[in-house]
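> call design_seq(struct)
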C-alpha cells in the first residue's frame, strides 16, 4: 500500500464520526418512594428508572396498580409500556413482586408487597 493511500485512509478514519458519537448512556437511578401506600397496593418498596424521570416512573406505577383487577390481578400494558411481573415469597397472607415496564429505551422497575 502506498504511503499516500495509507495517510488518506488514516485521516478519513480519524475524521469519521464515531459509531458511539450520538449515543449517551443513561444509568438506572433509584427514586424516592414517598408514601409507600399511595400507589394502590399494600406497599411499594423500591423504584428505579432508566431514560425517564422519577416523577414519570411514580405516575406509571400508580397507573399500573390501578390497572390490576384486584389483589391477585396483573396488568401487562399501561400508558404504552409493556409490563412483566415476577411474584415471589408467596404465602397465605401476602406476596412480593418485581415489576418491569418498558417502552422503547425507557424502563421503570418497582418492587411491591401485596397483602391478600
Amino acid at each position: 500500500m502506498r504511503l499516500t493511500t495509507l495517510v488518506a485512509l488514516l485521516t478519513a478514519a480519524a475524521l469519521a464520526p464515531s459509531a458511539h458519537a450520538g449515543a449517551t448512556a443513561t444509568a438506572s437511578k433509584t427514586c424516592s418512594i414517598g408514601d409507600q401506600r399511595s400507589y394502590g397496593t399494600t406497599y411499594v418498596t423500591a423504584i428505579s428508572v432508566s431514560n425517564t424521570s422519577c416523577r414519570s416512573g411514580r405516575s406509571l406505577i400508580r397507573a399500573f396498580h390501578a390497572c390490576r383487577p384486584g389483589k391477585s390481578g396483573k396488568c401487562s400494558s399501561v400508558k404504552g409500556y409493556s409490563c412483566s411481573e415476577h411474584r415471589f415469597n408467596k404465602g397465605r397472607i401476602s406476596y412480593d413482586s418485581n415489576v418491569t415496564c418498558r417502552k422503547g429505551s425507557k424502563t421503570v422497575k418497582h418492587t411491591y408487597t401485596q397483602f391478600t
